[in-house]
Amino acid sequence: MMRILAGFHALLLAAVGLAGAAAGEIVIKPEPWQMNLQSPATPMMRSVSDLHSFLLIIITVIVSFVLALLLLIILRFNARANPTPAKTTHNTTLEVLWTIVPVLILVIIAVPSFRLLYQQRVIPQPDMTVKVTGNKWYWSYEYPDQGGIAFDSNILSDQDADARGEPRHLAVDNPLVVPVNKTVKVIVTASDVIHSWTVASFGQKIDAIPGRLNEDWFRVEQPGVFYGQCSELCGKDHAFMPVTVRGVPEAEFNAWVEKAKTAGVEEANKMLAGLGRPSARFAEAAAGAVASEKQ
Ligand SMILES: [Cu+2]
Questions:
Q1: Second label for 91, Cα 20 to 30 Å away, from 60, 121, 230, 260?
Q2: pTM to 2 decimals?
Q3: Measured distance CA(99)–CA(167) in Å, rounded
Q4: Same domain, 180 and 217
Q5: Ligand 1 centroid to 174 CA: how many Å?
Q6: Does the residue 59 lie in any domain?
């Protein structure tokens, strides 16, 4: 029993990907053999998941009904079971029903569907804006509200990702860092060809088009690490321009901004906790604990 429990716990840890992250941080990334959508990190993705589940119920009912009718026809109305078929060609009640019922189903689907579309397209008053630029083959991020911090975000080699406890082909050197529980408006463009900035757990996929500025928004609800990928076939290294977003508490974000302005983004990123490289803060705390133990 204990072994099963331990196994289950290990599975859970692996599934949530907590192994490399700091306490209280969630890690959302695609998992091997994953059957469902990634867990939601934003209210938008929760709405997307809800609509998906709702549609799944409706489609299951419809498919089951059609299958039942098919089986009924195959079994009861084949040439052997029913040698003299009826000559009926019209049935007004049935015809009215099979017109009205699908219309009603579509109306029922349209209500949550349009609500979601509204949620996606009408951007609430943002707390800050981030500019995302797609390049062959990496992303650039700018923070116009934070004194114009700007940096490139490149994929990590397999070895580096491994050393940092991050997933292969999804981890980057400099993640997009955002505060949690803040509405972040994203403006997206590209410098060369069409890319698509996509983070599945945000319910977000927005094309990055040269000469055009697209906009979207998200609000991360919990500190964590969220992985995504370019989702528009953009060239030979399309598979090697992943997206990593770090959601951090506001105080930590402000400290990160200050550090990024004065010492650069690489230095600022060292302050971020977890992911196999303890943050400066974490290291200090650990050193403090060791010191107090020795006394
Ligand atoms: Cu791309």
A1: 60
A2: 0.79
A3: 50
A4: yes
A5: 17
A6: yes
